[in-house]
TrEMBL record:
Domain named Porphobilinogen deaminase C-terminal: residues: 240-312
Subunit structure: Monomer.
Protein's UniProt keywords contain Transferase: yes
Classification via PANTHER family: PORPHOBILINOGEN DEAMINASE
GO-annotated cellular components: cytoplasm
The organism's taxonomic lineage, starting at the top: Bacteria, Bacillati, Actinomycetota, Actinomycetes, Micromonosporales
Protein name: Porphobilinogen deaminase
Length: 324
């Protein structure tokens, strides 16, 4: 990082990525007075229209990381749920509790305040899930969502879908689909939250680990930038995401696995507490294991790992392993 120059923020070119990067750039300007310049980086995930499952984890992430390592950019913003988990995820730079990802010279310098982590339904004619009739066609390619829709037992048909948020919403507007399920956070960041016809209760649709959260990544030896970016960090979000990601990592499941987790922070008897819910599903939705655990914010990682162990003891491994 050059001390007085503009900070270069690498971003994918999709509307959602640009919106997320724009929000972080504005926060950096507001909190540090530093100028930020957006640098567009195209990723293999943006160039291909193949199903995400065929492209492999981290397909949206690696081009940004390469640009960071090559010092073409100073920092990058990721949708946290798109980051692959890694064994190195744990305490961050200089002993802080900021989680980091790889042992590859990069670190997650800040986890900004989370958007709404829940999934949303955007359906024709303002309909909710219970109002959609049998056989209604719902666009979603995520096994986690497909399994939970199947578990409702309402015979809704999930149809694989890809493309950006705008493309997905258009399929409903044009009558090709009866509805789509999307992260509410994505809709909000694009200014389209009002188009949701139902915000899905986590009792019915537990979100993906880290959904709605952003990860701000930079080089781990960039002390000055790490110090600047700390101003964006939200300790509650960081603790929640740490618990959810620890659960995912412990299950050795990737971001496309039918694993759901949501940590909420609330005032408990002895200060702030984490309430972590986790679930794993068989892809057909016939089997699921759903459990919860609580702990202090400082125990976030441990809470996630213990909940994963609980889930495995209840048969999560056979559920995850089943290909039914
Ligand atoms: N799967 C892709 C993806 N990655 C992040 C978001 C939304 C924003 C977020 O969760 O932070 C989305 C779209 C979606 O799931 O609808």
């Amino acid at each position: 990082m050059t001390v007085y120059g503009k900070l270069r923020l690498g971003t994918r070119g999709s509307a959602l990525a640009m919106a997320q990067s724009g929000l972080v750039a504005a926060a950096v300007r507001a909190k540090t007075g530093r100028e930020v310049e957006l640098v567009e980086i195209s990723t293999a995930g943006d160039r291909s229209s193949a199903p995400i499952a065929n492209l492999g984890v981290g397909v949206f992430v690696s081009a940004l990381r390469d640009a960071l390592a090559a010092k073409e950019i100073d920092f990058a913003v990721h949708s946290y749920k798109d980051l692959p988990t890694s064994a190195q995820e744990g305490p961050g730079p200089r002993g802080s509790t900021t989680p980091r990802t790889f042992g590859d010279g990069l670190c997650i310098a800040a986890v900004p305040p989370r958007e709404d982590p829940r999934d949303a339904l955007v359906a024709r004619d303002g309909l909710t899930l219970t109002e959609l009739s049998e056989g209604a066609r719902i666009g979603t390619g995520a096994i986690r969502r497909i399994a939970q829709i199947a578990a409702l037992g309402r015979n809704l048909k999930c149809v694989p879908i890809r493309g950006n948020v705008d493309t997905r919403l258009r399929k409903v507007a044009q009558g090709e689909l009866d509805g789509v399920i999307l992260a509410r956070a994505g809709l909000s960041r694009l200014g389209r939250a009002a188009e949701a016809t139902e915000i899905l209760d986590p009792m019915l649709m537990l979100p993906a680990p880290a959904q709605g959260a952003l990860a701000v990544e930079c080089r781990e030896d960039d002390d000055e930038l790490i110090e600047l970016l700390a101003a964006l960090d939200d300790p509650g979000t960081r603790a929640a995401v740490t618990a959810e990601r620890a659960l995912l990592a412990q299950l050795e499941a990737g971001c496309s696995a039918p694993v759901a987790a949501l940590a909420e922070i609330a005032e408990g008897d002895s200060g702030l507490e984490i309430y972590l819910r986790g679930a794993v599903f068989s892809p057909d939705g016939r089997f699921g294991v759903r459990l919860s655990r609580t702990g202090t914010l400082a125990e976030a990682g441990q809470v996630g790992r213990l909940l994963a162990t609980d889930l495995l003891a209840e048969g999560a491994d056979s559920v995850l392993g089943s290909t039914a």
